[in-house]
Each structure stands twice: as structure tokens, then as C-alpha cells.
Amino acid sequence: PGLLEFHFALAMVLEENRPAVKAAQNEIWQTFFGGRYLLLLMGLFSVYTGFIYNECFSRATTIFPSGWSVAAMAEQSGWSDAFLAQHPMLTLDPNVTGVFLGPYPFGIDPVWSLATNHLSFLNSFKMKMSVILGVTHMAFGVLLGVFNHVHFGQGHRLLLETLPELVFLLGLFGYLVFLVLYKWLRVSAAGAAAAPSILIHFINMFLFARSATNRPLFPGQEVVQSVLVLLALVMVPVLLLGTPLYLLRQHRRRSQRRPAGPQGDKAGLLDSPEVSVNGWGSDEEAAGCPGEDTEAEFVASEVFMHQAIHTSSLP
């Protein structure tokens, strides 16, 4: 379906300048034609997602030749007929010249489907890729909040929410992504047997401990991990109390400047640049816009509870 949608949208894009195509009065056709570029991208990424789905959760499609060569292994290992008869399962050694030719261009190399350790390899690979993509998406979502805070003039949320969220997220899980990538790039096939465990390092990071059998990946790793954990712990009270205390302080300052009487109360609310407790209404971003005429009552308990829920949603 994705491939059909892509070709259908591609035909509309290629023929978009023809007068007969533009002059068509069919309502359904006009709807499709108006969204032809959107349909083109949807079809393209649907095909891409289908290939990725097959690679991860279904049967992979062999598009390119494998990056592993059995012939090179047989030539340099001196396997005899008697040896092959006694060993139905053989291991390919990437340290032997010519056995590993290079990474597979797309997806997982099909030779892994024949390996006895394909499940352990694929599970490890999928788990690490899930962490990398998940942390990337979460960091991207936090950065998108910057545009909302700037647009609605909520500069305090940049310092009291966005910055602590990034420090907490990247200091813990961003560091985990760094360890994964660093190990991929630094540990070769020759030293894979003695490679340290990232999972043990990550557990020891929170326990402020070390493992004698699990060597560090880089010098000073324990110091870096301790500093990152302490920074993450410091960010938790900032996230929980920073914004509520700031809003409470702003509310008290407005109450002190507000004249006595009902007219003064209404005028103080309308003149305040942070109406509705600067965005703690039903629409917390839109409600903080200057010029909003909605009168809202400041309830400290609701603000603290809302911030606690927001903080607990972090990983």
C-alpha cells in the first residue's frame, strides 16, 4: 500500500502543471491533489518503515550480498573434509583477513539468520538502538518546549524546567548512549572477548561502586559517572520546587502591589503579564499569554501537584 500511495502521489506531482489535471472539478480528486506532496512523503516513509519493521520484527529481506565471506575462512583455516564432517557448525572469525568485508548497507546482514548466536546478537543490538532512538526523541521533545516558552514569554521555565530536564536526561541516559557509541567505535573484533559490560558500568554508576572484573572504558570514568549522578540528583528538587516557588513569589508580589477592593483585584489580574498563574490553567501554555482576560485563582497545592506530575513523567 505504501508503494502504491507513493507512485500515485508521484504521478500527481509530475503532472501537476497540466491544465487538465488542475481543472478537474471532482471533490475527491481535488482533496488528493491538494495534498499530493504530503501523500508522496507518507508513501515514501511508509515503504521505509515497512522495511525496518521486517528487519526488526519479521523476516528480513535480502537485498544486498552478505558482508561475510565463508570462502576466506575456509582458505585460511585449512578445514579438511574430516574436520567438516565432525563439525557441522562453524564459527566465522572477523579477525581473519577477508572474512568480514564491511557493514551491510541496509538492515541486518542475512548471514546472522544462520548463526547460532543470532538471538543474543539481535537482542543486544535492538536494545541499544531502542535506547539511542528513545533518548534522542525525548531530548528532541524537551528542546521543542524551548520554542513554546520563548513564544509565550515564559523565560523562567527555560531556567527552571528545560535546563534541569536536559541535565537530568543527558547526564544519565545521554551518558548511556555515549557509552554505547564509544564502545562500538573503540572496541575492535580482536578485543571483543575482553570488552567491558556497559550494563555493569551503568549499575555501578548509581551505586557509586566499581567492579574489579569490569575494566573502565576510558580513564577517569568513575569520576565522570559520580559527577553526573550528583548533578542529576540536584536537578530533581529544582524540577519539583523551582517553578512552583517562582510562581508563588510572583503571586505574592502581585498581591502586594494590587489595590484593595474588588476593582483593584480585577485590575491587578488583567494587568499582570502572567495571568492564570503563568500557564497553569486548562491550557498551560496559551493561558500564560499576555492579554488573556480570564481571571484565575492561585492555588499553591495544585501548582505543586502539577509540577510533581510533570517531573515524574521524566525517565
From TrEMBL:
Location(s) in or outside the cell: Membrane
Stored Pfam families: V_ATPase_I
First-listed, main subcellular location of the protein, grouped into a coarse class: membrane
A cellular component term, taken from the record's GO annotations: plasma membrane
Membrane topology: Multi-pass membrane protein
Record keywords, A-Z: Hydrogen ion transport, Ion transport, Membrane, Transmembrane, Transmembrane helix, Transport
Glycoprotein in keyword set: no
InterPro entries: V-ATPase_116kDa_su (IPR002490)
Transmembrane domains' residue ranges: 37-54, 131-150, 162-182, 189-207, 227-248
The organism's place on the tree of life at top rank: Eukaryota
PANTHER family: V-TYPE PROTON ATPASE 116 KDA SUBUNIT A 3 (PTHR11629:SF21), VACUOLAR PROTON ATPASES (PTHR11629)
Its job: Essential component of the vacuolar proton pump (V-ATPase), a multimeric enzyme that catalyzes the translocation of protons across the membranes. Required for assembly and activity of the V-ATPase.
Protein name: V-type proton ATPase subunit a
UniProt lineage: Eukaryota, Metazoa, Chordata, Craniata, Vertebrata
